[in-house]
Structure formats: structure tokens, C-alpha cells
């Protein structure tokens, strides 16, 4: 199903539609087939205009077995199309899915446009000339289904046939069978009378440029390479495989031509330790992980704070705590990123808002790390990592130049008394000098013990420790001088409610805000990329609205930070389901808060249609 969804997505991207995807699959390598926990799904939302989410309620469901139907039926709206492979609706499979009776035979699906099709049988018939066993032949049914949907929505077929020819080039029978099944599905849609409607979705209007479809993990890997090139620093990734961050390692390992070195360590601690060592040696040190790995790396991140070395820590968040939901999404690591180290160990935090934005966020994390000599936490999540969207490839001149400004000479005293002091500060950034080991005359001590101001020798002096703690915090605070002010989207200027978010909630928030505005009400939206430090105008923006709503896929972590720092009565909208927030539900929450702020009752209806009752 993931392959099928990916191919439909690539066809749609090639056609020029805007799109957002939501892959959803079990954590098990081989999940129990035919059971509800074993269902793998891929949701894609595409349109001829700008869209922000993978959609709340699909218009079409293709169910390959009873478990797929039962697991996804609740997400559909009444009148949605359901295409079912009848072959697998056996008594055994119905029982495994929890059905007592066959739902295809009763009236339980009368509210939907149901199409019962023997996808498996027709696939086996279509590929029989290739001499495959029935089991192998039936595996091509996903390509039959893809061909049918490609016909229904006018998708180009060349990208998929070319993909299959390349993917199975070494096994001609499998290649030809899949191509035949794909074409058979298309022809079935063309010739059958069961599907009376074929849809045409025109290409979306987008700013000019070169576009490609991209996932968040792929964009993030490219962003790290771009940060390496723009800084002139070789990229070193020290990491340990963990879902959903492993694809970053897989991708970066392909780019040795850009000076990338990837090291798959024996554990999370070794991975970050090697990355810190690479930074000490003058490389751009990076480590990638998910929430459990950040917990294991926390002591080493504190070491990078103390030694003041550049380090990018990528946290692709997943459902927790502990092993939790490895393949599901969540954004509950914000407070761990802020405070999850012993002592006062401030770390800048950057969060992308969409799969394509992972590229720019990675470049920004590299810029901050190198410029300010600090570890930076980059908070992506499973939804962004596995989801995809069209991405405009930036030109090189759009990327920032990152200057590592290595120390090349002694910086304290003069003549024979001149020394290299590794903890003297740049006046603008408070960053310390970065001296590559082996540079003559720039030998210096480094390690986790407290440093004496300036000279960097070990110091246990109470006043010095207080000063160094405050200086490291002030250095992180200075980052606010080089990040953009937060922008507020408030078209009418009359909004009394501000909806503010971070990370992957950007899409659902934007879609929810659009629905409320379309209903005729005023609401403002803002989104945070930098979570530590916050943009310097954030406090002023928050105090400009009567009510502030903070949607998050956690129990209120950004709300807590905003309340504590700015003393605003932030209202949380929180769901921790392992899935993205639903725009329709969020629109109702926004509407309720707008009604409170403006003294009116607002009812948006099931699909966001406006009704209004004035208080009398």
C-alpha cells in the first residue's frame, strides 16, 4: 500500500497538482496480515489549488481486505466511494477483522457508493501469460488498483511504467506482470460501466521554478548537505538507526561526492559522541534520532553546550513515551529539547512546518550551530518525515553563506607573551573562537568541566561559574538578533483571536483558519519556526489579541512556555492520537473561541458551513 500510494503521489506531482500525503503503517516489520493492527494505509489529498493537509475525510477508499475496510470506514464522509477487493472477504478474514457478517451483503454500507470488484481475480487473469504462481500473480493487485485510480483521476501513466521497468529490471517476469496489471486496471476503468464518472483535476497554479515531490526526511538530508556546502565544512553524520529518522542516514550515505561521511554507530551515545568529535576537528557534526535517542544523547548534548562546539541534533519526533508508537507522529519532545539536560544547558530549537520546509530548517540549524558555536535541536516529526509535497528547488544564491571563521592566530596578549584563549567572545554573537586541532600555537584544553572565562582552563570558582552560565544563556538569546520577526496573517486587522502553532500543525491550523474566515469571521494566524529563542517581537504580538489558541500534538507544551514567558492566557487545543490534527475539528475550536471573544454564538456545521446566532 505504501508503494501504491507513493506511485499515485509521483503521478500526481508529475501532473502538476498540489498535494499532501499521510502514510500510515504499523511498527512491526511483518504485521499480522488481515488484522486491524496490521492495516497499512496511504492517504493523498490533491487539488488544482494550494492545499495544506492530507484531508480529514477521504472521498475514495480502496480496501483490499475486511480489516482495511473496518479500520478506515469511520474516516469517510457519507457518500464517499468505496472500492473493495471481494476476493479477500472470506469467512476467515471477516472473523480476523471482527466482522460477524459480511458487510458487503447487508445494508450497512448503503450510505456510500460501494463498488465490489474482484481485483485479485482480474489481476491473476491479466498476468497469467507470465507463468507466475497464483500467489506471486496476486501480489500485483496493488498495481491493478493503481491503474484503476489513475484512470479515474486522469493521472499520467508513464512515470509508473518507467518506475516498474527500473525497479524490477533484473526480474523480467515480475516487471512485465506488474506493468500488465497496471495497464489492466486502467483498461478496466476505461471499459467498465461500473464507474460512470472520471474526474479531471487541473494542475495547480504555483510560483515559477523547478519543482519536485519530496518527503520531509529527504528534504532534511538535502538541507544538511546544503548547510555543509554553504559553510565549506565537510558533513559528518554520527547516528544510530531509529524510526522514523533512519531515512536521513540512508540518504546522506549516498552523497560522498559532497564530502559527506556517515557513521552508523553501535548505539545512540556513540553516534552523538562521534559527531561532537567531528565538530571539534572542524567538520559540521550532525546526529539524527527520535525522542528515545534524544534522551540517551542528553549528556553528550550538554558536553557540546559546555565545549561550545557546533552540533546539529535532528529529532524526528514520534509517539511516546518509551518505545511508544514508533511509526506514528507526535510533537511532545519540545520540553525535552528545552530542558532535557542536567544543569543550565540552553540549546536553540528550530522546527520545520512542512515536508519541503525541512530543507530550509536544516540549513537554518546549520547556520545557527556554526555561527554561534552551539548544539541546535531540529524538531521534525513522523508526519513531516514520511509525508510529501511539491517543493520548489531553491537556487544557490537563495541560500545563506555560513562563515565558520576558524581561529588562525593567537588572540590574547602580544609578542612573546601572546596566547590563544579559546573562550574569548565575539562581541556580536558571544561565540567563542573555533580552532582546528593541529593549528600551530592554538593548542587549548577542552572537556566537560567548567571553563574559566576567556582562558578556558578548568575553574571551580563560584563567581566564574555563575558568569559562564549566564554567558552561555546570553549567547543563545543573541540568536534572536539574526532570526526574522514573527509574521502575523491577519488580513482584516479586526481579529481578536490569534491561533499560533509550531512544527507540523501549520497545515491543519492553516486549513482550520481558512474555514473560519470563509464563514465570514475574523481570526489571525502565526507560526513559530524558532522556539528557542523566540522571535523578539513575539510578546508584543501575543498581547495584541484578546485570546490566543495553541493547537499541539501534545498536552500543552508550547502553551506552557508562552504562559511562563509572556504571562498570556494561552488556550491549548491538544490531541495525542498519533495522527495529525483534523482541520474540521480545529475549525470548530477556533470558531468557539472567536465566538467568546466577539460575544456571538458561532456554529460552523459539520463541514464548516456558517450559521450564526446573535446574543440578544
TrEMBL record:
Ranked from the top, the taxonomy reads: Bacteria, Bacillati, Actinomycetota, Actinomycetes, Propionibacteriales
Report the NCBIfam families cross-referenced here.
OAFO_sf (TIGR03710)
Q: Which InterPro entries match?
A: 2-oxoacid/accept_OxRdtase_asu, PFOR_II, Pyruvate:ferred/Flavod_OxRd, Pyrv/ketoisovalerate_OxRed_cat, Pyrv_Fd/Flavodoxin_OxRdtase_N, Pyrv_flavodox_OxRed_cen, THDP-binding, Transketo_C/PFOR_II
UniProt-listed Pfam families:
PFOR_II (PF17147), POR (PF01558), POR_N (PF01855)
Start and end residues of each Pyruvate flavodoxin/ferredoxin oxidoreductase pyrimidine binding domain: 236-450
Superkingdom of the source species:
Bacteria
Q: Which residues form the Pyruvate:ferredoxin oxidoreductase core domain?
A: 495-558
Domain Pyruvate/ketoisovalerate oxidoreductase catalytic: where?
Answer: 14-185
Please give the name of this protein. 2-oxoacid:acceptor oxidoreductase subunit alpha
| Matching Gene3D superfamilies | 3.40.50.920, 3.40.50.970, Pyruvate-ferredoxin oxidoreductase, PFOR, domain III
Q: Which UniProt keywords apply?
A: Oxidoreductase
Source organism of the structure? Nocardioides baculatus
